[in-house]
Write a structure and sequence with these properties.
The chain is mainly alpha-helical. The protein has 3 domains: 97 residues, Serine Threonine Protein Phosphatase 5, Tetratricopeptide repeat; 59 residues, Tetratricopeptide repeat domain (Serine Threonine Protein Phosphatase 5, Tetratricopeptide repeat, Alpha Horseshoe); 95 residues, Serine Threonine Protein Phosphatase 5, Tetratricopeptide repeat, CATH 1.25.40.10. 68% of the residues lie in helices and 1% in strands. It has a two-stranded antiparallel ribbon. Helix 7 packs antiparallel against helix 8 and helix 8 packs antiparallel against helix 9.
């Protein structure tokens, strides 16, 4: 009976799309979700840069212009081809319609893509109030807030939010591993502060979880170089080897956008 009712409801939604917009209750979240599911399946038949994908979401918005997910999806091709102004235009509309769902994502975009760290902090702190202790792109909101403060040179605030990030990951029984890039960037922050002992502790913890991490090996080598430790060459060679073998920092979209303090093979070779 349940299977039949779902199919019937899907057919009902399809029939509704043939009527005028006023015939559809666009304020109903159930209707919105059902319509979005139908049209997103159609959109996925196209590649992200094909006109048909965008036209599919335009057809959906002609029925219900208040579906935030549709605006978000329309912005993704612009994000992928580097047109941030257009990407934010659609993302802003998604936030306007559903701030609970999309504010944190916009903060992530400001931090990682636009490098507008002041705006990132505003969005991420607002998102924390809307959905406390939530995650975006595999990390806590505090992680991206900490990165933003680090890039702004406010290390006191960065330290505060890195500690909050790690504490949030340890909630409950505290048996989960901390994300290795939380440890990486905590170490990099202390490296920038010239607190090399603290930096080394966090980078070694990072390498315990992911020993092939090119960036962790590189920054460990840089610390050892500064402190006069001859083991620096071991870590420089590891960084070079692992990067050559294709190991990455393993962050979403890191192949498309540069993360803070991200290194290249050239950085390693010119050490």
């Amino acid at each position: 009976m349940r299977k039949w009712s779902i199919s019937f409801f899907g057919m009902l939604i399809w029939s509704l799309t043939g009527f005028a917009q006023k015939s559809v209750d666009c304020n109903s979240k159930v209707i919105q979700d059902s319509l979005f599911n139908i049209y997103s399946k159609k959109a996925r038949k196209f590649k992200w840069n094909e006109p048909g994908r965008n036209q599919t979401y335009d057809s959906l918005l002609a029925i219900c212009p208040n579906i935030s997910e549709a605006y978000q999806e329309k912005g993704l091709p612009y994000l992928m081809n580097g047109n941030l102004e257009k990407a934010f235009e659609y993302n802003n509309k998604a936030v306007e319609l559903d701030p609970v769902r999309w504010t944190a994502y916009r903060g992530y975009l400001h931090c990682i893509y636009a490098k507008n760290y002041e705006k990132a902090i505003i969005d991420l702190e607002a998102a924390e109030k809307l959905t406390p202790n939530a995650f975006i792109q595999d990390h806590t909101f505090s992680f991206y807030t900490a990165l933003s403060y680090m890039k702004l040179g406010n290390y006191d605030k960065a330290e505060k939010y890195f500690l909050k990030d790690i504490a949030q990951q340890k909630r409950g029984e505290g048996k989960n591993d901390i994300h290795f890039n939380s440890l990486l960037y905590f170490g990099i922050m202390y490296y920038l502060m010239n607190e090399f002992d603290k930096a080394e502790i966090y980078l070694r913890d990072c390498l315990q979880l992911y020993e092939q991490h090119p960036m962790a090996n590189y920054y460990m080598a840089m610390i050892l170089k500064i402190t006069g430790n001859k083991q620096q060459n071991i870590y420089f060679e590891k960084a070079k080897q692992y990067m050559h073998e294709g190991y990455k920092m393993n962050e979403p979209n890191a192949f498309r956008v540069t993360y803070p303090r991200q290194i290249t093979m050239q950085d390693i070779e010119k050490r």
